[in-house]
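Holo model, F0G. Inputs:
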Amino acid sequence: MNIKTRSWAEPYKMKMVELLKMTTKPQRIKAIKEAGFNTFLLKSEDVYIDLLTDSGTNSMSDRQWGALMIGDEAYAGSKSYYKMESAIQKNYGYKYIIPTHQGRAAENILSKILIKKGDIVPGNMYFTTTRLHQELAGGTFEDIIIDEAHDPSNEHPFKGNVDLAKLEKLVKKYGAKKIAYISLATNVNLAGGQPISMANLKELRAYTKKHQIRIIHDMTRVAENAYFIQQREKDYEKKSIREIVFEICSLTDGATMSAKKDALVNIGGFMATNEWDVFEEARNLVVVYEGLHTYGGLAGRDMEAIALGIAESLDDNHQHARVGQVEYLGKKMQDYGIPIVKPIGGHGIFVDARAMLPHLTQDEFPAQTLAAEIFIDSGVRTMERGIVSAGRKSNGKNYYPPLELVRFTIPRRVYTQAHMDVIAESAAAVYQRRKTIKGLKMIYEPKYLRFFQAKFEKLK
Ligand code: F0G
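Output:
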């Protein structure tokens, strides 16, 4: 036998499993109706394969579980804090660290410090919590991602790139002093888990240096971005994920991080900065919102797990298996003809709900509808990333985002390849009966981040 390409497999094995409940279709119909057709409001007990998010849903390693036992739960100056601080300094290179209970807490503190009322915050596509904190601090988010990112079928290898002409326009219009900072995400979540290239980041750094504008890095999925740079960018194929991550961070001035993603833990986050003044203010503010600056809302054991998780996330074999599994699912879905965002991203498959349900208007919530239908079909829980997630502008009008997507988010080190087959088959079954699917009407809408708690009913 002539074996040309060899399979990859996960660089770990299972030591413990969590049993899942299998449900019937009538049970799932009842459950989704009770949840107001919002997958966030389902009970996880009723879910078979949970692809709601890759946030806090990762499997920790035996080493991380072991480390929980040596967490130092001192209120002040915990040993575990110093381990987390040194893991961040060593692997990411940022100087000063503020732990927080998760990413949005870091966004809250950082936005309060760096944004003044009337400021502009340009970024490579919005993220829900990030933009909300920028707005609550008095800023206005402006999207400066390249146009290709808004087109689900465009195969640009770095759809997370910044369009410098768009940034230049904002600088000309408002003046550099009005720009609070560039809100720069690696592996842009809402674009479909799409990376920014090192070349683009270097250009952005040169431009912002000239105009004295900070770059604040949302580094929630930085290691996945580094994987794509290694695979796709000239001169980086021989560099390790660890080296690439370090280089990305070195081109920015500070960061917010949800450790619940890349860093392989169930809870945690931090803010980082290279500026003493910013740190000093953050160290003070964290006491108001989170806890003392040496724990910031985390238990000592959480900080132990983060310190190890950061190191594990930078392993080349880990990232290969991580993104490889997502690619496996994406290719299967493509084989069934399901329209997905291309290229396949880092943390999940994003199904193009507009393309799948062209008979629904955006006000009939195609992505929300599709997420509910997939749950009914198989108990697979996905998430809407479209008009519901985008929310309303400060003038009360709906945002109408060009992307209307259902996210099949893959937790790290949790599901098997056989699970991926079941997921793809379920999406295919819904795809086959797509023309018969009716939309939804919103019957309850909370004021903030409505996608978490909104309720819907089926249109007749
Ligand atoms: N930034 C990005 C890019 C994120 O994806 C998230 C969370 C946050 C910040 C906020 O972090 O949840 O720890 O407060 N994303 C989750 C998701 C919720 O499902 O995509 P957090």
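The pocket of F0G is lined by residues 53, 55, 102-104, 127, 129-130, 185, 189, 218, 220, 258, 260, 269 (CB under 6 Å). The chain has a mean pLDDT of 97.
Archived with the compound record.
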